[in-house]
């Protein structure tokens, strides 16, 4: 419980200075923001060693292998052929094992703290055969970049319930929505 309280404090504190940002590019997860270079946080060798997913050889997702301050896991998306490793997407995950209600409470606090006009779709089906759901809350800024704060609920495996905070540049957001 002490760890959860610390996470909540750090998350709210990290967003409080940014709650009046005009563009998503001004937001950060663990010091990283859209448009920055992943090379500022990892060597090229570390980036390549930590590839977690490849989107049709266009975008690549690498996991950050350094201990995050707030999140349990961090992933960063960049273009596969970009030697500068410019950041097109950042996602931080906080696990809520066996406690999806606390995930929803934390989601509400983050959205309130960011204080933007988010779109709410309610709880949507993630995997119908498993009764898994997710609750996305998304904001798209004037440039087409997106912030999403989502809770994922896996009733058959509740230990993997989690909150995901992600920032996506317009190009990557379009790709994952329409391609």
Description:
With 179 residues, this protein is of the alpha+beta class. The protein is 25% helix and 30% strand. It is built from four helices and nine strands, in the order ααββββαβββββα. It has helices at residues 2-16, 44-49, 100-114, 170-178, and strands at residues 51-55, 59-63, 73-79, 89-95, 119-120, 124-127, 132-140, 146-153, 162-168. Strands 1, 2, 3, 4, 5, 6, 7, 8 and 9 form a nine-stranded antiparallel sheet that branches. The termini are far apart. Residues 1-20 have low confidence and may be disordered.
Secondary-structure blueprint:
Blueprint (H helix, E strand, L loop, with lengths): L1 H15 L27 H6 L1 E5 L3 E5 L9 E7 L9 E7 L4 H15 L4 E2 L3 E4 L4 E9 L5 E8 L8 E7 L1 H9 L1
Antiparallel strand pairs: 1-2, 2-3, 3-4, 4-9, 5-7, 6-7, 7-8, 8-9
Helix pairs in contact: 1-3
Provide the structure class: alpha+beta
Helix content: 25-40%
Q: Helical segment tally?
A: 4
Helix and strand sequence: HHEEEEHEEEEEH
Shape: globular
Query: Mind summarizing the main beta sheet?
Result: 9 strands, antiparallel
Give the oligomer, counting copies of the same chain as homo and different chains as hetero: single chain
User: In angstroms, what is the radius of gyration?
Assistant: 16 Å
Task: Please report which band the strand proportion falls in: under 5%, 5-15%, 15-25%, 25-35%, 35-45% or over 45%.
Answer: 25-35%
Low-confidence stretches: 1-20
Average pLDDT confidence is 85
* DSSP summary, beta strand count: 9
């Amino acid at each position: 419980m002490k760890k959860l309280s610390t996470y909540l404090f750090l998350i709210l504190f990290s967003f409080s200075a940014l709650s009046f940002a005009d563009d998503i590019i001004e937001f950060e997860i663990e010091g990283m923001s859209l448009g920055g270079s992943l090379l500022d946080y990892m060597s090229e060798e570390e980036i390549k060693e930590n590839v977690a997913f490849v989107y049709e050889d266009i975008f690549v997702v690498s996991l950050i292998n350094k201990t995050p301050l707030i999140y349990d896991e961090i992933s960063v998306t960049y273009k596969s052929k970009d030697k500068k490793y410019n950041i097109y997407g950042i996602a931080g995950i906080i696990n809520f094992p066996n406690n999806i209600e606390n995930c929803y409470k934390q989601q509400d606090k983050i959205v309130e703290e960011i204080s933007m006009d988010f779109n709410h779709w309610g709880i949507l089906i993630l995997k119908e055969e498993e009764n898994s759901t997710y609750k996305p809350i998304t904001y798209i800024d004037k440039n087409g970049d997106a912030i999403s704060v989502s809770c994922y609920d896996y009733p058959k495996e509740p230990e993997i319930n989690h909150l995901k905070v992600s920032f996506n540049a317009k190009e990557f957001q379009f790709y994952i929505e329409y391609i």
